[in-house]
Amino acid sequence: QVQLVESGGGSVQAGGSLRLSCAASGYITTRNYMAWFRQAPGKEREAVAAIALDGSTRYHDSVKGRFTISQDNAQIFLYLQMNSLKPEDTAMYYCAADSYAGLYGGSSDYEYWGQGTQVTVSP
């Protein structure tokens, strides 16, 4: 079993920065792949960034160069550093984990989810 707890969301103005954190517990093999997803009202949940246990990463085209996904050496915390935030980044952000999702896995590929943290970016 894996438990994921996000924190760090909030309200910022465009151009600002936020750092999201996700505290993970459970067998490490169930966290071979971890990712940040986001869902805006009326839109589908989309993968923002993903990281594999070996440290390889992938990003949604819309956040490349602005967001950075990382995890601590013990794979206990997952982070998402978000810089140069835009109003279109406004969404509920979720941490997810899975053994087999792969770096390009979608929301249906992830078994474990956090409760989400809201990010609001004003113009």
Keywords:
123 residues, mainly beta, globular
Layout of helices and strands:
Blueprint: E1 3-7, E2 10-13, E3 18-25, E4 33-39, E5 46-52, E6 57-59, E7 67-71, E8 77-82, E9 91-98, E10 112-113, E11 117-122
- Our measurement of the CA-to-CA distance between the termini, rounded to an integer number of angstroms, reads 40 Å
Number of strands: 11
Q: Could you give the order of the helices and strands?
A: EEEEEEEEEEE
DSSP strand content: over 45%
> Taking Cα atoms only, what radius of gyration do you get, to the nearest Å?
13 Å
Helix content range: under 10%
Low-confidence stretches: none
On the 0-100 scale, what is the average pLDDT? 94
Shape: globular
Q: In DSSP terms, counting alpha (H) and pi (I) runs of 4 or more, how many helices?
A: 0
Classify the secondary structure makeup into a structural class. Answer: mainly beta
**Biggest beta sheet attributes:** 7 strands, mixed
Oligomer: single chain
Structural commentary:
The protein has about 120 residues and is mainly β. Helices cover about 0% and strands about 50% of the residues. The chain contains no helices and eleven strands. The protein has strands at about 5, 10-15, 20-25, 35-40, 45-50, 55-60, 65-70, 75-80, 90-100, 110-115, 115-120. Strands 2, 4, 5, 6, 9, 10 and 11 form a seven-stranded mixed sheet that branches. A four-stranded antiparallel sheet has the order 1-3-8-7, with no helix packed on it. Strand 4 and strand 5 (about 45-50) form a beta hairpin. The radius of gyration is 13 Å and the shape is globular. The mean pLDDT is about 95.
